[in-house]
């Protein structure tokens, strides 16, 4: 790679995409976008204890169980991915 | 509009707790994170938990860990927060502060998916720390010591793995080999790609060991092995000679021992016998206890049962893992086993417990073991147990927690001087109604009746060196009574006190003699029994007295002041005289300063509304040093000396200072600083205390002098963590008081009121509120006031629980099976929980929780409660899975029934997999039996859950899903009159004012509606442009609403004045415009005028005034159990002053855990027009030079800033 390449927009984007999970790109599908948003949400719920408490009251579960459930849902937050259309 | 935000009650819930020795040495301390607070707690010798330090960190603490460098005596604290930084703190015992040792930035701020802060793990030998995020990132920092034995931290080493979720991390104890960290990881990359679902179903959690190579300074994945897919928590197993090393993996239903090169050892977690089959058992908190020869683990399940886990091992080989039922306590967020044999249990919801170990579970009990694990076709064979009463633990203290506050109302139901705050707190069987009153709680030690009405009381010691008081002297209008303090308190007559006259003062004089001042003279009783009398000249009588240990000043009627001193032989000698211009209203002498012969200052209050300071220096000849005029004649004076402090347990550092306090006849307490050299008065503050002129007394609180002010209610002025606090006591009106020290009660107060003598102590210093608790049955949701009768109507509901009858039947069955049959608690009406936990209930629900039912089962009740008698006058349990969600009182316009109660319910509501319900209902109840009971009038079926109800123009407005509907009362059901279906999601709140309806949507903030009676139409004329997930709302004025959202923001929206006018003037009420619409919403948009991130989910809002004559402020309650207030500033100057103070505080004193203050308060939306009082109030905790620096920038003195802060607080509470 040449030195000048480091500053062009594509390689900068690639760098961002590698560094920050969830950085979008031009061909991002609706599903990928939603999955990313959902995972961000669950991570935010797990990080904010009062919100976990709020959910725990609503569902009458313990906070520990809520946290576990949210972490589990991060695997497939929006259900199965759609079938890929062949390019 | 600018608001001043102040937390009134700090958060009481606990996110995480760790224990260790943070001040060094042998003392055991607990550090707890309460969301945005970091606190240091210490159990005292009596087993009571004391709060030593509490710091607002303006960030969200997510994880805590403690570590100790090898050979050190002291633990450090590591904090994982939302700041994108790792912070290492050290508790500074001398100054009583947390010192920030290191702060290393590694990422963006905020609770993000890949920014570490969620998990912390420590190498058991204190050589490294790992900080992890929910996904991908894990960083390892190497901890070491430099040559000066200071802690050093390395640059971060990465242990990242992308597309990988992390469930838990922990350190592995491998002695002094390279540190190893373990993590439960799940790789999702394939599941995201595979549309058949096969990859997702095959996704496997792995236990991965990361080794930190200290030589190469590098972290590598050392070992990874598949682990049970229900794994959620890792616990370190001791190693390096103390145990087999490795980790315990807690998974749903199992505990598995794992180590590299070791086969899994697995045992099932015993299940409660009544647990539905589809529910798993998850471990939610764990604690390890290690002694020299043994170690064990305590694991708590999500139902509250604690299991003791032991490992049988032969060097490094674990042969058996045993899980034995230990005890059941409320579900905890963290448990700490202290070396002193105590267990600190930080409850998820409700009060925290402090337990003493009675045993360590050595007796036989239900046990599951890896050796007896049976695998059948349906999986592993479960082991069942029945929870029982506490056997190994004994609760010795509990710390009150309001978490979660579900609803709140500020009303003066009891017609007291200040309103009471009624809060609905807790969850399930631990729920309660708590009545909060501003003030300190006191505990009454004794009350005894006296013959006649006493006018004054004193306590005296026999000798200066005595620890305890010897006599209580009570003065009546014509006599004096002496009581001696010993085993019992009894009357004595051989003390030398004159008993046939009233007394004006009684005190210890010199080293060991007593003085009684009566209207006709001074009686000086020497230690050997000799009595010297000084008689007043002529017919004059003594009117007022002031004295300290070596000086006495009396004021004779007519205004002459006579000054006495105790000479070296202990003789009381008349030294000087001074003629005042008129009668003396009150006088006081400052206490003798340490190492001095006399105090220099005498304060004299006169009826001409002045206070004078006279010099008692022999050279000065009672010269007047300064004069202060006050608003009303002074009634009582008191010098209060504040000792110099450099921090320590009483708070921040401040220089020694002398305050003169005056109680004025108009009920105001006037406080001013006395210059210790010149006697000049400066920096005066005043505060209205009550309807009577305050009488001031000096008492001892926590070994320091404090001031008791007796007005129409008693107040205590004391210094707490650097702040001077003036707080009311929750006690009746007192006449006269004195401090009291005896064997049974080291720091008490003796007081007279009416004809009774009372002895009490003051508890829980530093708290703003004291509370009265009334237990409830299920999670309280909402409550309303029945205004005429002053009764509260509460709706309570719980998902996934059995009804009272079913629970009773199940209990009976279980006791019959157990053969005890001693269940006396068969009466359903008596089934309130809490309150008296010691009662002979073999299975109190408060401890054990309600048995779990299927998630579509609901229990619910409607309760009418009389708060005065704390009794439930009516309790209706709803049947058939119906649960109540909304409540309001309504007066229909035909007035046939008067006030009715409307309750919105849902039947068979389920949230997962989709929200479904069998039916919704609106119940209409009539109040009977003077409002104490309810009678169902009728029940109307609706298509959704009625989540909001409100009265409107003699009709009932109901929010049912996204429909707003107007109902009228019919004979057999409610009659639909009008509806609007255009709301975006679910209506959660309705408030009305005149013809406007303010509707709150669960996801889309407020909508302003109008009802046109002539056309019978409801339409939305304005809405908000920002999506807000409303959790609470309150109507402020015609155009303004206050709301709070799920993410912890409080905000105000206002309809612009011109738009509002236009709508009011428009004959069609803006309807034409409405028909056109704008941007898929209403034609007009509201403006956000106030925005503030509280950092905690606000669940209730109310506008109220907490002090008589005080301005109204917006009070809020939160999930974490804190209460706060937002007060509107009334002057532009104050706004300028506080915004500058806030700015300098931000610059000079950034928050402890590394979050930027402005960034935190603007976490979701930029903060607008709110000044953070909590930050400003940290000003007194700053070092003195910094205080001076900030004060200089503001062109003021530090004293003036403190006064401003005090004033601002006094306007609120």
UniProtKB/TrEMBL annotation, chain A:
Pfam families, alphabetized: SF3b10
Gene Ontology, cellular component aspect: precatalytic spliceosome; U2 snRNP
Domain of life per record: Eukaryota
GO process annotations (BP): mRNA splicing, via spliceosome
InterPro entries: SF3b5/RDS3-10 (IPR009846), Splicing_factor_3B_subunit_5 (IPR017089)
Family listed: Belongs to the SF3B5 family.
Protein name: Splicing factor subunit
UniProtKB/TrEMBL annotation, chain B:
Signal peptide (residue range): none
Pfam families listed in its UniProt record: Beta-prop_RSE1_1st (PF10433), Beta-prop_RSE1_2nd (PF23726), CPSF_A (PF03178)
Alphabetical list of SUPFAM superfamilies matching this protein: Tricorn protease domain 2 (SSF69322), WD40 repeat-like (SSF50978)
Annotated RSE1/DDB1/CPSF1 C-terminal domain residues: 860-1179
Domain RSE1/DDB1/CPSF1 second beta-propeller: 442-762
Primary localization class, coarse: nucleus
Domain RSE1/DDB1/CPSF1 first beta-propeller: 14-367
A GO term for molecular function: nucleic acid binding
Subcellular locations according to the entry: Nucleus
Keywords: Nucleus
Region feature Disordered, mapped onto this chain: 817-845
GO cellular component: nucleus
Cited PANTHER family: DNA REPAIR/RNA PROCESSING CPSF FAMILY
Record protein name field: Splicing factor 3B subunit 3
């Amino acid at each position: 790679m040449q030195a000048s390449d480091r500053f062009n927009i594509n390689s900068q984007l690639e760098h961002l995409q590698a560094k920050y999970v969830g950085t979008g790109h031009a061909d991002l599908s609706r599903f990928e976008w939603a999955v990313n948003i959902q995972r961000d949400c669950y991570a935010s719920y797990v990080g904010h204890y009062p919100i976990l408490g709020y959910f725990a009251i609503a569902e009458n579960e313990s906070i520990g169980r809520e946290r576990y459930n949210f972490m589990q849902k991060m695997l497939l937050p929006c259900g199965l991915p759609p079938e890929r259309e062949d390019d | 509009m600018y608001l001043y935000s102040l937390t009134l009650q700090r958060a009481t819930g606990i996110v995480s707790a760790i224990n260790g020795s943070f001040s060094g040495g042998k003392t055991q301390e607990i550090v707890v994170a309460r969301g945005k607070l970091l606190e240091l707690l210490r159990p005292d010798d009596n087993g009571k938990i004391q709060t030593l330090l509490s710091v607002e960190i303006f960030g969200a603490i997510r994880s805590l860990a403690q570590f100790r460098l090898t050979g050190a005596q002291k633990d450090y604290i590591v904090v994982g927060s939302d700041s994108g930084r790792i912070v290492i703190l050290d508790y500074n015992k001398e100054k009583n502060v947390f010192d920030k040792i290191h702060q290393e930035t590694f990422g963006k701020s905020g609770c993000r998916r890949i920014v570490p802060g969620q998990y912390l793990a420590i190498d058991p030998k204190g050589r490294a720390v790992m900080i992890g995020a929910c996904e991908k990132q894990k960083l390892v920092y190497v901890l070491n010591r430099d040559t000066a034995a200071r802690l050093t931290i390395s640059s971060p080493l990465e242990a990242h793995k992308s597309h990988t979720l992390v469930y838990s991390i922990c350190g592995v104890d491998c002695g002094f080999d390279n540190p190893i960290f373990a993590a439960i990881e799940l790789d999702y990359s394939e599941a995201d790609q595979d549309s058949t679902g096969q990859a997702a179903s095959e996704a496997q959690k792995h236990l991965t060991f990361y080794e930190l190579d200290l030589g190469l300074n590098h972290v590598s994945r050392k070992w990874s092995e598949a682990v049970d897919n229900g794994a959620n928590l890792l616990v370190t197993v001791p190693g390096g000679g103390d145990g087999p090393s490795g980790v315990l993996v807690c998974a749903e239903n199992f505990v598995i021992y794992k180590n590299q090169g070791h086969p899994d050892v697995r045992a099932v977690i015993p299940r409660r016998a009544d647990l539905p089959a589809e529910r798993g058992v998850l471990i939610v908190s764990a604690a390890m206890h290690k002694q020299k020869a043994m170690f064990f683990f305590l694991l708590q399940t999500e139902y509250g049962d604690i299991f003791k886990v032991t490992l049988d091992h032969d060097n490094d080989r674990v042969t058996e893992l045993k899980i034995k039922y230990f005890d059941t306590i409320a579900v905890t967020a963290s448990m700490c086993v202290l070396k002193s044999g105590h267990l600190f249990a930080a409850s998820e919801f409700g009060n925290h417990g402090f337990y003493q170990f009675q045993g360590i579970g050595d007796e036989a009990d239900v046990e599951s073991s890896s050796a007896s694990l049976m695998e059948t076709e349906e999986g592993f064979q479960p082991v069942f147990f029945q929870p029982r009463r506490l056997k190994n633990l004994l609760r010795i203290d509990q710390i009150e927690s309001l978490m979660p506050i579900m609803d709140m109302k500020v009303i003066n139901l009891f017609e007291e001087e200040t309103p009471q705050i009624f809060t609905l707190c807790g969850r399930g069987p631990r729920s309660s109604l708590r009545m909060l009153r501003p003030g300190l709680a006191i505990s009454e030690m004794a009350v005894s009746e006296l013959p006649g009405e006493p006018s004054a009381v004193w306590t005296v010691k026999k000798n200066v060196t005595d620890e305890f008081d010897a006599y209580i002297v009570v003065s009546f209008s014509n006599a004096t009574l002496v009581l001696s303090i010993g085993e019992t308190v009894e009357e004595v007559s051989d003390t030398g006190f004159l008993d046939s006259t009233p007394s004006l003062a009684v005190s210890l004089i010199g080293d060991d003699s007593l003085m009684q001042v009566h209207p006709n003279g001074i009686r000086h009783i020497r230690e050997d029994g000799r009595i010297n009398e000084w008689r007043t000249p002529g017919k004059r009588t003594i009117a007022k007295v002031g004295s300290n240990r070596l000086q006495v000043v009396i004021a004779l009627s007519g205004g002459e002041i006579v000054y006495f001193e105790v000479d070296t032989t202990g003789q009381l000698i008349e030294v000087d005289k001074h003629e005042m211009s008129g009668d003396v209203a009150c006088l006081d002498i400052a206490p003798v300063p340490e190492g001095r012969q006399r105090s220099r200052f005498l304060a004299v209050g006169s009826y001409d509304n002045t206070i004078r300071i006279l010099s008692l220096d022999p050279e000065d000849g009672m010269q007047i040093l300064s004069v202060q005029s006050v608003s009303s004649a002074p009634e009582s004076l008191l010098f209060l000396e504040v000792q110099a402090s450099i921090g320590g347990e009483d708070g921040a550092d401040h220089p020694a200072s002398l305050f003169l306090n005056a109680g004025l006849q108009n009920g105001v307490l006037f406080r001013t600083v006395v210059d210790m050299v010149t006697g000049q008065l400066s920096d005066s503050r005043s505060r209205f205390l009550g309807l009577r002129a305050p009488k001031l007394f000096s008492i001892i609180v926590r070994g320091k002098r404090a001031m008791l002010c007796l007005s129409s209610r008693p107040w205590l002025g004391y210094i707490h963590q650097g702040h001077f606090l003036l707080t009311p006591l929750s006690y009746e009106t007192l006449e006269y008081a004195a401090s009291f020290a005896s064997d049974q009660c080291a720091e008490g107060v003796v007081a007279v009121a009416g004809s009774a003598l009372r002895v009490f102590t003051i508890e829980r210093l530093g708290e703003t509120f004291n509370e009265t608790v009334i237990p409830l049955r299920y999670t309280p949701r909402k409550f309303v006031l029945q205004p005429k009768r002053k009764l509260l109507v509460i709706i309570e509901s719980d998902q996934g629980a059995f009804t009272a009858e079913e629970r009773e039947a199940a209990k009976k069955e279980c006791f019959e099976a157990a053969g005890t049959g001693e269940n006396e608690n068969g009466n359903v009406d008596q089934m309130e929980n809490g309150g008296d936990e010691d009662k002979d209930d073999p299975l109190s629900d408060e401890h054990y929780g309600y048995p779990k039912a299927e998630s579509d089962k609901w229990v619910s009740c409607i309760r009418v409660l009389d708060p005065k008698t704390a009794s439930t006058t009516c309790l209706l349990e709803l049947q058939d899975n119906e649960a109540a969600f909304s409540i309001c009182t309504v007066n229909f316009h035909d007035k046939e029934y008067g006030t009715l109660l409307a309750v919105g319910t849902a039947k068979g509501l389920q949230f997962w997999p989709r929200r479904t319900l069998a039916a919704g209902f609106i119940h209409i109840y009539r109040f009977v039996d003077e409002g104490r009971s309810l009678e169902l009038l009728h029940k109307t079926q609706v298509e959704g859950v009625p989540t909001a109800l409100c009265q409107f123009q003699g009709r009932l407005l109901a929010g049912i899903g996204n429909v707003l509907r107007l109902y009228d009362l019919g004979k057999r059901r409610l009659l639909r009159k009008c509806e609007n279906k255009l709301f975006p999601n679910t209506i959660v709140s309705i408030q009305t004012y005149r013809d406007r309806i303010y509707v709150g949507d669960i996801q889309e903030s407020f909508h302003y509606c109008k009802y046109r009676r002539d056309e019978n139409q409801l339409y939305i004329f304005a809405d908000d442009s920002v999506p807000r997930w409303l959790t609470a709302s309150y109507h402020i004025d015609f155009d303004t609403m206050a709301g709070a959202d799920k993410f912890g923001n409080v905000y105000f929206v206002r309809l612009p004045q011109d738009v509002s006018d236009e709508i009011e003037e428009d004959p069609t009420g803006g309807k034409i415009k409405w028909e056109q619409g704008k941007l898929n919403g209403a034609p007009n948009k509201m403006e956000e005028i106030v925005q503030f991130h509280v950092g905690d989910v606000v669940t209730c809002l109310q506008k109220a005034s907490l002090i008589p004559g005080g301005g109204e402020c917006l009070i809020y309650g939160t999930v974490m159990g804190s209460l706060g207030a937002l007060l509107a500033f009334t002057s532009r100057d104050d706004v300028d002053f506080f915004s500058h103070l806030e700015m300098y505080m931000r610059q000079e004193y950034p928050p402890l855990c590394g979050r930027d203050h402005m960034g935190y308060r603007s976490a979701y939306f930029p903060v607008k027009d709110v000044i953070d009082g909590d930050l400003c109030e940290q000003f007194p905790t700053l070092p003195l030079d910094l205080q001076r620096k900030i004060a200089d920038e503001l062109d003021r003195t530090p004293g003036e800033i403190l006064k401003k802060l005090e004033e601002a607080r006094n306007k609120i509470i």
